[in-house]
Design a protein that fits this description.
The protein is about 15% helix and about 35% strand. By secondary structure, the chain is an alpha+beta fold.
């Protein structure tokens, strides 16, 4: 009965009268074998229509692949078991279905065979599946006529079930051989999934569990030897760091107790991996707490497999009275490292002040924007102040983001209060006579009056400015969950227009359907992305109720790479 129902479903999907979907796929295969080079997609009426075949292939795949992406395949359809079924759990998820379907024989790899190709009927079904698999791959190679009528396909694949009762950042890293995803699973346990370019996912759980602190995000990197580095679960906490002993194999991740100096690794926060111009892997982090911390940089030596200090002193020293909240360094069109930050006096988020800037050729020797050298460590009284915003004036840490105009000049996007009490977006650009500061928004009645400690649910997220149409710059912001592009004049930075925009999360939301009350988090790197739903931050406090775990998805291509941050980190 199930086989008959399945054939009826396939027949109902096919638009041609008297043609089942299986018959069409088989007819296409037989015709192509007999006439190589002939037009694909012949319809029953004899017409040639590539768009028809693209739509046909999409409808063939959509009922299965859409359910796989949402983790609903076995909920909606009862699988038919092979006569040679080996007794394994039939509810085992088949993650990554498109990658595991081998075109030409239709068998599922690494996930257990659902259908045995023993009988003639099964061989025919395998042949149909092979045609489907081949057709999916062929979507990208049907030529300009086809691609002009259909956008590039986005592949969405379930990786794992993950923690969702509070927001905490996950990480994605990639090199030419593999993709690494590091996250907290449904039980809060730090986990790593690795996929080679031609294979399935390999999983490993690590001995670290997250609590309720949204600061405790995950950072991951791959060094030049292919070893995986993971740092996580830190908010004024001792080092939590793992490294593989066999390239690309997460099962060899081993906890490392010390990077360089145990005394500076007892109260760590905000780990971020960077690379120097020669490819050296660098880790930066804050040593100390909010209001009295120092910024530390260490470099990894491939030959010795040890970390060493990159700088003889901390990059910045709060002198026990404050700390610097950095965004970057960001590599500019000039190849230099550009850095923006604010100073904060206490754990109260309202005590941020004095937007600052520095630039470096090598991450070790730093200068002002006019080329004068800066002594390290950076201190408030010797730093270059771009805008002397006072405390409680509407400027928050981590929302001072650097972009560049067509001439390669750095532009810092940030926000502060104006005379009428509203919160507005500002741009600061280094020009020949100094920093030009201009208001980029003209909002009425909007004020984000934040304060206190803990991770805030941000009403504003800003991105770096970038060139737009001729004579224009565009700055993207997310205000109360809605993406906006602020368009300004390239010469004067004066506002021109404000228009709706779409983020990566916006493009994925219709497909992933996050539960009500949750935000869709994203992180992107290497042409791919991850996405997962969670509650927003809750000032690092436990809520009264828990939510069900959600699905962590792997997305390729991500569709909106210009606003994606490779580390997937928005520390707060």
């Amino acid at each position: 009965m199930r086989a008959m129902a399945r054939r009826g479903l396939l027949g109902g999907l096919a638009p041609g009268a008297g043609w089942t979907l299986a018959e069409r796929a088989l007819a296409t295969t037989q015709r192509d074998r007999g006439a190589r080079g002939s037009s694909v997609g012949a319809r029953p009426d004899g017409k040639t229509d590539r768009a028809y075949m693209l739509d046909l292939l999409r409808r063939m795949a959509a009922p299965v692949l859409s359910r796989v992406a949402l983790g609903q395949l076995q909920r909606d359809w009862t699988p038919e078991l092979s006569p040679t079924w080996d007794g394994h759990d039939r509810h085992r998820p088949v993650a990554g279905l498109p990658d595991r379907l081998r075109p030409g024989d239709g068998r599922f790899r690494r996930s257990g065979s659902l259908l045995s190709p023993g009988s003639a009927r099964r061989k025919r079904e395998n042949r149909v599946k092979g045609a489907i698999g081949s057709g999916l791959i062929a979507l990208a190679t049907l030529g300009p006529a086809a691609t002009a009528q259909a956008p590039a396909a986005r592949t969405i694949e379930a990786i794992d079930r993950v923690w969702s009762s509070h927001a905490v950042g996950f990480a994605i890293a990639a090199d030419t051989q593999r993709t690494v995803v590091a996250y907290y699973d449904a039980n809060r346990q730090l986990s790593v999934a690795v996929r080679a370019r031609s294979g399935g996912w390999t999983y490993h759980r690590l001995d670290s569990w997250t609590g309720w602190d949204s600061h405790n995000y995950v950072a991951a990197a791959i060094d030049a030897d292919g070893q995986i580095h993971v740092v996580a679960n830190l908010h004024n906490d001792p080092l939590v760091y793992f490294r593989t002993t066999r390239a690309g194999d997460p099962r060899t991740l081993t906890r490392i107790a010390t990077l360089v100096d145990p005394a500076r690794e007892r109260r760590m926060t905000y780990p971020v991996f960077l690379r120097s111009h020669d490819g050296t892997l660098i880790l930066k982090y804050r040593d100390g707490g909010s209001g009295n911390g120092n910024e530390i940089y260490v470099a990894y030596d491939l030959a010795t497999r040890r970390w060493r200090p990159l700088l003889a002193t901390p990059l910045a020293d709060g002198e026990g009275r404050r700390n610097a909240y950095f965004v970057g360094p960001v590599t500019g069109p000039d190849g230099r490292f550009h850095l923006a930050w604010v100073w904060r006096d206490t754990p109260d988020a309202a005590t941020n002040h004095d937007l600052s800037y520095a630039v470096s050729d090598d991450l070790m020797h730093w200068q002002r924007s006019d080329g004068r050298p800066l002594d390290l460590p950076l201190r408030l009284d010797s730093s270059e102040i771009v805008d002397p915003v006072p405390v409680r004036a509407g400027m928050i840490n981590n929302n001072s983001v650097i972009g560049f105009d067509r001439a390669g000049r750095p532009i810092i996007t940030y926000h502060k209060f104006v005379a009428d009490g509203s919160t507005q977006i500002f741009l600061a650009r280094r020009e020949a006579r100094g920093w030009r500061i201009a208001q980029a928004s003209r909002w009425r009645g909007f004020r984000w009056d934040f304060g206190g400690g803990g991770s805030l649910a941000s009403r504003l997220i800003v991105f770096g400015a970038r060139p737009g149409a001729s004579g224009q710059l565009v700055t993207r912001v997310i205000r109360d969950g809605r993406a906006i592009d602020l368009v300004v004049d390239d010469a004067t930075l004066a506002p021109i227009a404000e228009r709706p925009a779409r983020t990566l999360a916006d493009t994925l939301r219709p497909d992933l359907s996050p539960p009500s009350g949750m935000v869709l988090n994203t992180a992107a790197c290497g042409g791919s992305a991850i996405a997962w739903a969670s509650r927003p931050p809750n000032r690092d406090q436990a809520p009264r109720t828990l939510t069900e775990p959600t699905t962590l998805y792997f997305v390729s291509p991500p569709g909106a790479p210009h606003d994606a941050r490779c580390d997937g980190v928005d520390p707060g």
